[in-house]
Amino acid sequence: MSTVVATHAKAAKMPQAAHRRKGPGAVSQPGLEELTPVRPRTTPEIIADQLREQVISGAFAPGSRMIEPQLATRLGVSRGPVREALQRLVQEGLLTNIPNRGVFVVELHTADITDIYTARRAIEREAATQLHRSKSQAHLDRLAAVVEEMRSLVGRGDSRLIAEQDLAFHSALVDAAESPRLNRMFTTLLAESRICLASLMDFYPEQNLLVAEHQQLLALLQGDDEQALLEAVNAHLDSAVRDLTRTSED
User: Fold this and answer.
1) How confident is the model over 79-90, as a mean pLDDT?
2) Burial level of 202, CB count in 10 A (0-12/13-18/19+)?
3) Could you tell me the pTM of the whole model?
4) C-alpha to C-alpha distance for 163 and 197, rounded to whole angstroms
5) CA 103 to CA 85: how far, in whole Å?
6) Most buried in the list 42, 78, 185, 208, measured by CB within 10 Å?
7) pLDDT digit string, tens, across residues 137-184
8) 220, exposed or middle or buried, with CB in 10 Å at 0-12, 13-18, 19+?
C-alpha cells in the first residue's frame, strides 16, 4: 500500500517539476520565435553610424577632411573610437585615407559614378532574375509599397524623399534575391549612390518619369518576359548614369 501511495505522489509532482524546468522563458508565445538576440553596439559602431549619415547627407562635403581630434571633442569620446569609426568608413568606400595628409570624404567623378552603376547592374540584374523566377509575393508587395510611397511624394517639392524611395526600391530588389553576399556587396554601393545623389540632387530625374520607370520594373517583375525585364534594368541604370554625370568632371 505504501508503494502505491509513494508512486502516486511521485507522479503528481512530475508536472510541477517539469514546469519548473521549463521556466517562463521556455513558454511558447506567438511571435517569440521571430525575435533575435540583441547585440550590444560598440562606441565605434555608434560613431560610424553618425558619421556615415552626415557624409551621405552631404553635411560633410566631398573632399572635406575628417579631423580626428575635433570629431573626438565634439562627440565627447577619446580619439581611439573615432579612429576605428573612420577606418570602418574607409573600408566602406565613403572616406579615403591619404598618406601624410589624413582622412577625407571621397570625391566621386564621372569614372567613379560609371563604375558604381556598372557594379550595381551586375547585382541588380541577378536579383531581378531571382525574383522574376520566384515570384515571391511578399517581396513583390514590398516593392509595390515603395513605388506607391514614391508616387505619393511627387509634387511635394522634396527630391531627397523621392531619391530615398528610389534607393529603397533597389535595396528591396536586392533583398529579394535572399543572398547575404549580394546584400553585403550592395551595401557599400548603396552608400556611394547616396553620395552621388546628395551632391547632384539639382540634376535628379523628373519625378513623374522616375515613378513611371519603377512602375515598369515592378510590372515586368510580375510578368513573364525575363529578357524585357533585364533590358529595362539596363535602361534604368543607364539613365541614372547619364543624369548623374551630366555636370560632373573628371
Assistant:
1) 95
2) exposed
3) 0.70
4) 7
5) 12
6) 185
7) 999 999 999 999 999 998 887 777 888 899 999 999 999 999 999 999
8) buried
pLDDT at 10 over 90: no
* Residues in CB range of 176: below 8 A, 6 or more apart: 127, 130, 131, 134, 136, 139, 142, 143
Asked whether 203 and 75 are in contact (CB, 8 A), the reply is no
Please give the DSSP secondary-structure letter assigned to residue 98: E
Residue 62, classed as helix, strand or coil, is coil
User: Has residue 77 got a pLDDT over 90?
Assistant: yes
Cα 215 from Cα 150, distance rounded (Å): 10
> How far is residue 230's CA from residue 217's CA, in Å, rounded to a whole number?
9
Report how far residue 147's alpha carbon sits from residue 137's, in angstroms, rounded to the nearest whole number: 15
**Cell (9 digits) for 146:** 515603395
Contacts of 221 (CB under 8 A, 6+ apart): 128, 131, 132, 140, 143, 229
Report d(CA 57, CA 48) in Å as an integer.
14
Alpha-carbon distance 163 to 132, whole Å?
24
Cell of 75: 562627440
Provide the 3-class DSSP secondary structure of residue 105: strand
